[in-house]
Each structure stands twice: as C-alpha cells, then as structure tokens.
Batch of 2 targets.
Target 1
Amino acid sequence: MKDRSETNSLSLTLEIDLLRSFVAIAQAGSLSKAAQRIARTQSALSQQMQRLEAIVDQPLLQRTGRGVVLTSSGERLLGHAQRMLRAHDEAMADMSGRGLTGTIRFGCPDDYAAAFLPHLLREFAVVHPQAFVEVICEPTPRLVAQLARHALDLALMSLPDGVDERNVIRREPLVWIGSPGLDSVLDDPGEPLPLALSDPDTLDHMAACEALARVGRSYRIAYASSNLAGLTALARSGQAFAVMTQTAVPPDLRIVTGDTLPPLPSVGITVKFDRTSPNPLSVAFADHIRQTLALL
C-alpha cells in the first residue's frame, strides 16, 4: 500500500499550461512583459507560478528590483520545459492537422541566417506546416529601418553590449578570421592590416576599427559589403582579415586569436517586431526563435 506522500507525488504533474507560462516569464524577465505576451494578467501568472513551485517543491523564480530571474532550480526546469513544449506542440499539430496559417516577413543578418535559419525554419514547419516565412537577409541597421516602415513583421538582429540586455536571447563573440597566407602581415606591425568588413554602420565593422585604433595598429579597408559570401571569399583568398560572429565562421577558415590581434566584443542577439501588437504567427515564430537559439 502506497503512503500518502507517494500518492500525492504521483498525482502531481507538470501541466503544459503552467510550463508555457513559466517559459514566457523566463524569456521576458518580468511578469508584466510575460503577461502582455501571452494575454494573461500578472495575478494569473503569479498564481500559476505558485502552483508550479508547489508541484516541483522548489523555488523557481527570484524577484528583483528589475523583474524576475531564475533560481538554479528554475534554470534546470527551463530546459525540460522547452523540450516538453516543443514535443507537445509538434504532436498537436501532427494529430490535429491544424497549426497557424499565413505568411510572415522575417529579417535576418547573413551570418545568423547561415548559422541558425536551417534549424529555425525546419522545426517551425513541423508545428505550423501551413505557415510561410519569407526571409530577407540584411545587416541590422537595414532591418531596423525596414521594421520602422513595416516592410518586415519581425527580425533577428544584433545589439551592442549593455543595450536591452533583458531581451537578449544569447550572446555571440565577434572574432577575427583569416588564412595562413596573411601571417607575414601580422608579424609586421608597420604594414597596414587589410580588412574585409561589413557596412560601416554595422557592429562588426565598428568593433574592428575601434579595436585596432585602441592598440595603434594601422589598417586599410580592402573590401566592405553586407554580403557574407564576399567577406569569406576575400578571407579565403588570403587578401584580407574579416570579422564575424564566431558561430558563422566556416570550418575552412581559422580564427585569429587575441595574441596577434586585439580582442573583439560580443554582440547580443534579439528579436524585434514591427509593431507593439504583432500578429499571432509572428509571436509564435519569435517564441520558436527564442527556444531554439537557447538550445543550439
């Protein structure tokens, strides 16, 4: 015969609705933002979190002056919750034959497209097979402008250190890349460093110039373009060093360490909408982006 504590533990389950609210709060960093995102009141979310903490018998959230942060138990549960929600949504879409429909215009820089888009689009199509995502690849400044005039529904973009940290999904270090043919240039500090950089108003371009100016190293811009293929081609040819996020570095190019070139900062990755009340398909894709990038 089971004792009472064992019976109670068997009757408690991790309800999908509670987990969905928990993930929304973890991603938003506050109850108020999460409430807006999933159309619930803060009071309702607070009650749900009390229930969830009672079920797992551990504190999951810690309130601060700037919102909420996850406890160590909350961090552990977050990974489980994201996987369970993804499996649940895939099963429901498969069994019901439904899912969201429509078309959204999604902006993404070249380097994030190369690293993340295959995962994002493939897995989103499983849950929402009748939804279509039009992809526009541009540097972050151009994506910001397109969002402002509603030419895009949402965009994945880069943020400098210290900007909108609460909405940063993940951080990616910027790195120098080059080919062995440029080693002689590195060894001669008097020779201007040839660079292949993105557009002048992009974070990687500005970070490279600022880092070299800080250490007094001269340079020349051999190639400037928003096209990632052009930048990597020039780096492969041995004509110039390029700068990009580490996740986008092709396997045949090497990262030049900070021993020979000055270190570069990291950039934050976030999702922005074109309006304060985005459509359900845009919200679903943004949530999918946050969950996917947190696990990659």
Target 2
Amino acid sequence: MAGKHEDLPVGDVELDRENPRIRRSLEVWEGEVSDDVIALALDVAGSGDDAINAGTTSPEKLRNSILANGRISQPIIVNRRPDGSLVCIEGNTRLWIYRTFLAENVEGDWSTIPAIVHDALEGFAIDAIRLQAHLVGPRPWDAYSKAKYQWELHYKHMMPIDRLVDLCGGDRRDVQKSINAYADMENHFRPLHEPGEDYDVQRFSGFVELQNNKVKTSVLKAGFTLSDFAGWLKGGVKAKIPNLAGVRQLPRVLDDRRARDVFKKKNIRAALDILEKPEINSDLRDATIGQLARTLTEKIGNISLNEIQRLRADPDDDMVRYVLDALEALENFSKELNV
C-alpha cells in the first residue's frame, strides 16, 4: 500500500537506530544510545567531507538549503508501528536538522515535517525503501543541465547569486564559474553547430576549465578568441583538444611559439610533444600492446602513496597527461573491440 502524506510533529518521530548507515557505529558504542549519539553517527554535525567527495550533499549544505527554502523539498519516509509509534526509515538527517532548528528557535515553522507515512512496514518492505532511496534513487543532474538551470534562475528570473548558492547548497565561486561556463558555451560553442547536429554537452567541462583566469588569459593573449577555443573542443576524439587535461595545458602551449604553431596545424598532443617528448627506447617500441598493458597494470599497482599525492597536488605534471592520453586511447580501443 502506498504511504500517506502527512505533516508530523518532529518530536513524535523517532530517529532510526536500525539505519544501515549508522548501525556499525552504534554496535561499538558503549553506554546509552541517545539521539545525540545517533546524530554523531549520522555525521549531522560533521564536516561532510566524505559526502562531498562522493558527489553527495553534505549535512551543512543540506542545512543551508533547507533554511533557504523554508522547508524540505522531499518528505521523509516514516513507518507507523502497530503500537502507533513513528520511526523515520529514510530522512534521519533532515529530521535532525528540523529538530535543531526548532530547539535553536531558528526563524520559520520547524514544528512539523512533511512525511510519507506507511503503516506497519516490516523487514523487506523497509529495506526496499532504503535501497531505492540510497542505491537506485534518482540520477543527479549532469553538470551542463545544472549550469543551464542556474543561469536561467540568475539571468531570467533575476535570482541573486547568494540566494542561488543557498538553494543549491554549493560554493559561491563554483556556482558563478558554472554559470559563466554555460554562458561561454552557449555563446561560442552552439553557433558552431548546424540545425539538428549533435550538441556534445560533455564538452561543458572544457568551458568550466576556461574560467580559470590563467587559461582564458593565455587564449586571448595569444591572439585567439573564445570562438576559436570552442572550435578546438568540437569534434570529439578528433578535436584539437579532445580531453580536459588538454585545456589545462593550453597556457604552456600558447606561451611557446613553436608549440603554438604546431597546435594550430595539428592538435594539443603534438604541441605538447614539442615541449617535452619522453624518451622511448627500442624495447618499448617493439613491445606488443598486451605487454605494455600488463606492465602498466603492474606499475600502477606498485605506485607509492607519496607519488600519488604528488600527482594530485600537480595535475599539470606530464605523467598525468600521459596517463590521461593512454586512458583515452585504451577506452577508444576497447570500443573498437566491442568489449
């Protein structure tokens, strides 16, 4: 049976002690498991770094978004047990935020919370709801679609950036960069397409990189236009700049006359080879693709943590570029093999 929509008093709904997300933490907790302990396990008051890295919403961003909207946009899901008690089986963080707002007398009505209430759910039915919410739930918007919506809200509906940041739960700099990237893409990339021609929104990431002042300055300083830049991204794998790493390398290429001339005639890879072409001995050139692939797998498996951290701190390192080029070549090769 489908649940019924109700506005429930926040004090009447229990936090879920059986929530798989926090069960492991609670099992090793010594002493009484209070609501504060559950909140700690949920990381409601934490930094939310793990959530950010995984591409989800941190508790702080969710808190700001709820505060800006004045309510949650997605109801929590509650199970009414046979004895009449209520337990939140999906949305514990949202419930805790409402409780916190109410306790702290935050402006607004936080005494009741929107909920979908089910009666006497058991075992499998509860697990099915949790799985749907966290493992096979709605897909997040792609970056281009999100930027398009943000641009429309800001420029068509005159929504201030700060308000937009609150609603999105993001960072002001990132929101502004996303909006600017969308504008540059629409103004310079879309005009390069004929009616009905496929419009590759995956190229949006390149326009996000263009917002880096160093990249945009290098393009204009070398005598090119943003329409030229858009043309360099068009064409997929055959484009002058087929991947994101290439955009990041543009300042190096455009600041060097020889590399710039090669780039104009060929592509970013050829230009980068002019700057620094790695030595490849005859044994490597004579090795089969299978031998090289196996060796690469072994090398990556044995790479040290210090080296990984060094490369993370320096994404412009030549090794990163060579790895990304190899990754792209292998992906295209695997498509040819139909595997």
